[in-house]
Amino acid sequence: MTEPPSAPRLGFFTSPPHECGYLPEREAVTMFADPRINLSVEAYTWLSAHGFRRSGTHVYRPHCGACNACIPVRIAVSEFEPNRAQRRTLVRNADIEVVQRPARFEREQFALYERYLRARHRDSHMDSTNPSAYMSFLTALWCDTSFYEFRLRGELVAVAVVDRLGDGLSSVYTYFSPDHRARSLGRFAILKQVEWAAAAGLPWVYLGYWIQQCRKMSYKQEYAPLEFYFDGAWTRTPPLA
Q: Which end of the chain is less congested by CB atoms within 10 angstroms, N or C?
């Protein structure tokens, strides 16, 4: 098993209280790794192993005082076995070809991203019309990022943006065609990432934050065994929010 590196020399900042993007009527505070420091894959691996997440070049973690609703989670790759619904998803999508691409702007991928946001996140504050903002959201120069294309008979139906860490893969973002809802492409993309991590001998797939009270984020608990980062340690027991 690959161990995360020792603690890098980093500084941290916290944001002022702001509206929570997941739970209405709650305030949130976010901790950021010092954005003036150009990170490395090694430092990013350490931060991910301590509950941080990447959005563009910003690496952050919720820091909300008494609220513990946002819990970092990761899949234990070597112990993972797909459940019945997941096996059906794999069979249903056996005709999809997956190709690993470099993290660079592609017009076809961006067009699919725009369609996905219009269909799934109409009330989102995410910028769906600016290619520069799109790439700034998904990539960082210091990061080992790939855009995995999922194609059905040549049609681009999904893109999974994935970072490779020293001890695993980090699932940054996945978007997919609204015309193929029955295929469960989001689930399929996570299952493929577990396969890729296993093939590379990596022990973890980091899924970001599990939020039990938020339907859009609670689905992550279907991937077992799942580890939860709470009180400075990883545990198999979901903490109470």
A: N
The one-digit pLDDT tens for each residue of the chain (241 residues) are 444 455 677 999 999 999 998 888 889 999 999 988 889 999 999 999 999 999 999 999 999 988 889 999 999 999 999 999 999 999 999 999 999 999 999 999 999 999 999 998 766 555 556 999 999 999 999 999 999 999 999 999 999 999 999 999 999 999 999 999 999 999 999 999 999 999 999 999 999 999 988 877 778 999 999 999 999 999 999 886 5
**Which architecture characterizes domain 83-196 according to CATH?**
3-Layer(aba) Sandwich (3.40)
Give 206's contacts (C-beta < 8 A, 6+ positions apart): 48, 53, 72, 73, 74, 165, 168, 169, 170, 171
- Residue 241 to residue 238: CA distance in whole angstroms: 9
* Helix, strand, or coil (residue 75): strand
Domain assignments of the chain as residue spans, ordered by start: 83-196
d(CA 201, CA 105): 29
Task: Confirm if 53 and 61 have CB atoms less than 8 A apart.
Answer: yes
